[in-house]
Specification:
The longest helix is centred in the first third of the chain and has 13 residues. β35 and β36 form a beta hairpin. The strands form 9 sheets. The chain has a 9-stranded mixed β-sheet, with helices on one face. Strands 12, 13, 14, 15, 16, 28 and 29 form a 7-stranded antiparallel β-sheet that branches. Strands 9-38-11-35-36 form a 5-stranded antiparallel β-sheet, with helices on one face. The chain has 7 helices and 38 strands. α1 runs parallel beside α7. By secondary structure, it is mainly beta. The chain starts with 8 loop residues before the first helix and ends with a strand.
Length: 558
């Protein structure tokens, strides 16, 4: 039977938010397990009539409570999706999809056209103009093997396909969903931090980072330079954070300027969500001033863009075009840079990458006094030292203004959306892996400011419209820190959420301000060293896997 499905996730999410309140003022069905809970209404996920099951709150430690919400049941299906034309699995012009359905019919297969779209609007640019996918078969959540067998038959008939679970599309769904919420009282004797593993250059599991920090609670933090089949490493250092990372008021990764970040233990506010930029410069002994392009990253390779100087990216035709906007999971390049390396990066600065013929390291002590000049770049980072690494014109500038025994004077600013400094002696911060979700209690999604639009078409990326596992963070009006995970890629347990569903959820949970952290297989929640959620690398992963990530958000005893 032919079926056409249209994505209206934005309308569904906004409609659900209008109908619900955290206090259940218009509460629909809700059930509890064990001890009674105060009514909270149903989660704003899926159609009316779904029942929210609330697990009684668990006191993890004084000031920390854990809640679990489940809702919905599986009604989506496993299907075989066909390549329509070239490398396109979806097309805007339905003519091409209908043509493929006809070719399928000629070989005895019944195809259908599924549709997804997202209206244009504030923060999402052009949205997602209607896209058409051609699919064959519809097998229940527990029947992926039948979709696999159908795929083999289609391949034997000369078609190129893959198996998909349709809940990922972002079209209206009945779930199911598993949502885990940790609430941290701001008055408790606890500290909120962003932490990395043994060094910034290397990824580690949230478990390992949490244990090293003595964490009571730990979740994954920023996006990072993940090395996977779908996301090849940009720099060769898989722990490299994508954008802002601050620990103990030390800037360990520069901002993709203007992206939303989670600020912890800052001046005047223990938890804050805002759009953040950073700037660093050095002044040489002779008065010459040079802007620093990056902190703890390979020179010439800015993951996520949003930098300074002559950064450029490849457009759809493969041409380099200037680019200073943040663009999530996009590589910007610049052949003339200066980057600062601190000991947190690792034991050595990177050697020049292929094609770089002009590079230099300026090795300094902790007071930025020049001790050595290495030409070409690459070598040890002495304990407590700093290294300025330059390539191209950046290397030339360092050679001209570095003198052993003379000091550079550094200067760094980290500022919010109004240009005010956010630094404090205890500041930790991590860039979100997605956009803002809630601001002043209202849904606010700024995918545009967070580089989640195609820079050439102004169309949102799949990361916005599709359902994925998500890690979310927020702060309530009373200052509570909310750390939330939504499992996904589990057809019979939890299908994940779209960005708009995530925003509706965080508003429902009482967030005054909220953002999305890392997502997908990154999503991890550990409480006192025990894994509470199910991190899934893909829809077909055999079992949950704790992925190595760039950094983590932890709650530790004060």
């Amino acid at each position: 039977m032919k079926r056409v499905r249209r994505m209206t996730a934005l309308a569904v999410a906004l409609g659900a938010m209008a109908a619900l309140s955290p206090t259940g003022a218009t509460a629909t069905a809700m059930a509890t397990e064990g001890a009674a809970q105060a009514p909270v209404g149903r989660m704003p996920l899926g159609p009316e009539g779904l029942v929210t099951v609330v697990k009684p709150a668990e006191v993890v430690s004084p000031g920390i409570t854990y809640e679990k919400y489940t809702q919905g049941q599986a009604t989506d299906n496993w299907s075989v999706e066909l390549l329509i034309t070239g490398s396109s699995w979806s097309v805007g012009n339905r003519v091409y999809a209908d043509d493929l359905v006809g070719r399928l019919a000629a070989k005895g297969f019944t195809g259908r056209v599924d549709v997804r779209e997202l209206p244009a609007g504030p923060g999402v640019g052009a949205g997602l103009p209607r896209q058409h996918m051609v699919r064959v078969g519809a097998f229940g959540a527990d029947r992926p093997a039948e979709a696999d067998a159908l795929l083999q038959s289609l391949q034997a008939a000369g078609f190129t396909g893959r198996t998909v679970y349709t809940a990922q599309d972002g079209n209206p769904s009945t779930g199911p969903w598993e949502v885990r919420v940790v609430r941290i009282d701001p008055s408790a004797a606890l500290t909120f931090k962003a932490v990395h593993g043994s060094d910034v250059a290397s990824a580690q599991t949230v478990r390992d980072m949490g244990e090293a920090a003595g964490a009571l609670v730990a979740v994954n933090g920023s996006d990072f330079d993940i090395d996977s089949p779908n996301n090849p490493s940009f720099s060769g250092f898989d722990g490299d954070p994508q954008g802002l990372y601050v620990q103990g008021n030390n800037l360990l990764s520069e901002a993709n300027n203007g992206r939303t970040a989670l600020l912890l233990e800052g001046a005047g506010s223990r938890v804050r969500v805002d759009e953040v930029s950073s700037r660093t410069q050095v002044t040489a002994h002779d008065g010459a001033v040079r802007a620093i392009d990056g902190i703890n990253r390979v020179p010439g390779r800015n993951i996520g863009c949003g930098g300074i100087g002559d950064d450029a990216r490849k457009d759809g035709a493969g041409r380099l075009v200037p680019e200073l906007r943040p663009l999530r999971n996009t590589l910007c390049v610049d052949d003339n840079e200066v980057v600062v390396f601190r000991p947190e990066w690792g034991s050595e600065t990177p050697s020049p990458r292929a094609g770089v013929t002009n590079s230099v390291d300026v090795v300094m002590d902790g007071n930025w006094v020049v001790k050595d000049v290495r030409d070409p770049a690459g070598g040890p980072i002495p304990a407590g030292s700093r290294v300025l690494q330059g390539i191209g014109a950046g290397a030339d500038w360092l050679r001209a203004h570095s003198l052993p025994g003379k000091a550079f004077k550094p200067g760094t600013s980290i500022t919010d959306s109004k240009g005010a400094s956010v630094t404090s002696p205890t500041l930790s911060a991590a860039a979100g892996g997605g956009p803002a979700l809630v601001r002043n209690g209202e849904v606010l999604i700024n995918a545009d400011a967070n580089g989640m639009l195609n820079p050439d078409s102004n169309v949102v990326t799949n990361a916005v419209v599709q359902r994925h596992p998500r890690t979310l963070a927020g702060v309530t009006a009373t200052g509570e820190l909310l750390l939330v995970t939504v499992d996904g890629r589990l057809p019979q347990t939890s299908v994940g959420v779209t960005i708009h569903e995530a925003a509706a959820l965080m508003q429902w949970l009482g967030a005054k301000d909220a953002l999305s952290l890392g997502s997908g297989g990154d999503t991890t929640l550990l409480i006192k060293g025990t894994l509470y959620n199910r991190p899934m690398d893909s829809w077909r992963a055999a079992a949950p896997t704790e992925r190595k990530v760039g950094n983590a958000i932890v709650v530790v005893p004060r």
